[in-house]
Specification:
By secondary structure, this protein is of the alpha+beta class. Helices cover about 25% and strands about 25% of the residues. β2 and β3 (about 20) form a beta hairpin.
Length: about 200
Amino acid sequence: MVRRHHPRHPRRTDPAGRTRPRSRTRETAWTIAAYETPVSDRMWHLTLSGATPAPVLQTLLNRLAEGDAWETAIGGPATEKTVTEATHPLTDAGWRHTVDGRWIRWETLQADAGVQFDAFAAQNPHSTLASWTLWAGPSIDHPTWAIHASPYTPAPLLTHLAEELAHGTGTRQSSPAKPPYTANLTTTPRPLAPAPAAQHTSRHR
């Protein structure tokens, strides 16, 4: 199931006492969930913030359309093998790897994008905590955009998202490229009117 969240226009008060809409770039804009049957409990899910770049979302939707991402192992938590599989694009790209208690992190040398694995949350398939956090921006606590994945999210799906990060898609983004909730997955190039006009004139001289 893929669900797109609609804006609710929440408001906040600034120091001068004025109210203004909250930024929606960090709020959940998309939820993708897998169920074994229409009436069963949710097996795994992903949430994406409003400023997640369109190419990242496109990659995710393409993988889901292929079907194999819906297959998930039932009966075991994340293992060292699945974690290695999910993050090998980051290792191959030379990302910095650190371990801080329950958190295992991979970050660019510029620290402007990263992936975090929560080993504690991953042990409980019904945990409300995210096992995986993929982000880009100033820091994981203040990201420009972020993706959160629950326990049991298929490693192949995470691998493709990690490849997007490793190749730099959206990782240098300092501000949202498009307003949330209106991102276009495909765009039509703007016509370059001057160039065709010049070529047409030269052919008739």
